[in-house]
Write a structure and sequence with these properties.
This protein is mostly helical. It folds into 2 domains: 1-186, no CATH class; 190-277, Orthogonal Bundle (Arc Repressor Mutant, subunit A), CATH 1.10.10. The protein is built from 14 helices and 8 strands. A 3-stranded antiparallel β-sheet has the order 2-5-4. A 3-stranded antiparallel β-sheet has the order 6-8-7. Strands 1-3 form a two-stranded antiparallel ribbon. β7 and β8 (255-260) form a beta hairpin.
């Protein structure tokens, strides 16, 4: 199968988003990286007690979540914070950030469209409705196996939010008749919302010191879109962050935006979040 190099159809390669495996993988990577600058996949496979093919796919998903550095497979800066503060992925705020990480990346063909289009546009949906959103599959991926790979990846995405650790977010719920729908989402901590907003800026508007509310609420890959928030929710989070002294809100006749108060990085914000929690 050949692909459009801008897109990746399979992050999971039929495997599930199992966070106990990511916990093992991240711990092994952190331990090995103390002695090596670059880690072979086989070494990680041996460390977590699995075969190369499985380890390779867990690594693929871990990179998509932002846990491992792509070329060296050592823990990313975020990954190192997780090893230190939440190695078993118990914190729902962290899970929200990982949801943003994997979903708000246009190269992740299925995940990105699921969080940008499928969920925000459909209070209720089923598998067929999800698959309908990929009518352009043949424009990006050629080969007879592409539809099958798409189906498997959709299965992994739905499973991630209904059976795996992401189910704790309440982002979607599965109903008994094979339907899915919006869930009763867990609250998004303000500092996690700030970290996701910084990720959005860094990926799509690098160098920007301010962001319009319209971008935050409804632009592709924005916090409003990826977290499935209405404008009132986004403004409430912005008000909480203003009260915390992390940003300004500038709202007048011709201006409706947030302005970052300091040159925070995503890692600094997440570390502050963990320190506040501990």
């Amino acid at each position: 199968m050949t692909t459009d190099t801008d897109y990746k159809l399979q992050l999971s390669n039929h495997y599930r988003l199992e966070f106990d495996r990511f916990s093992q993988l991240l711990g092994a990577s952190a331990e090995i990286s103390a002695e090596r600058g670059r880690i072979p996949v086989q070494m990680l496979a041996d460390a977590i007690g699995t075969v190369y093919r499985k380890a390779e796919n867990y690594v693929s998903m871990a990179k998509a979540l932002g846990l491992l550095t792509p070329t060296t497979l050592v823990p990313s800066p975020l990954g190192r914070l997780i090893v230190q503060y939440d190695p078993y992925f118990d914190d729902t705020g962290l899970l929200w950030l990982l949801h943003y990480n994997i979903g708000a990346e246009p190269r992740h063909y299925v995940w990105n469209r699921f969080v940008n289009r499928v969920v925000p546009e459909n209070r209720f949906f089923d598998r067929e409705k999800v698959l309908d959103y990929f009518g352009d599959l043949g424009e990006h991926f050629t080969g007879k196996d592409a539809p099958s790979h798409l189906s498997h990846e959709v299965t992994t995405v739905l499973d991630a939010y209904t059976n795996q650790q992401f189910s704790r977010l309440g982002y979607i719920r599965e109903q008994s008749d094979g339907q899915y729908g919006w869930g009763s989402s867990e609250p998004i901590p303000p500092l996690i919302a700030l970290a996701a907003t910084l990720l959005y800026r860094d990926r799509f508007l690098p160098g920007a010191t301010s962001l319009e509310f319209s971008h935050l609420v409804s632009a592709p890959n924005s916090v409003g879109r990826v977290f499935n928030l209405i404008e009132a929710d986004v403004r409430r989070l912005a008000d909480e962050l203003r009260a915390m002294g992390t940003l300004y809100i500038e709202s007048r006749a011709d201006l409706d935006q947030i302005r970052f108060r300091n040159n925070y990085t995503v890692v600094e914000v997440v570390e502050g979040y963990f320190q506040e929690r501990h």
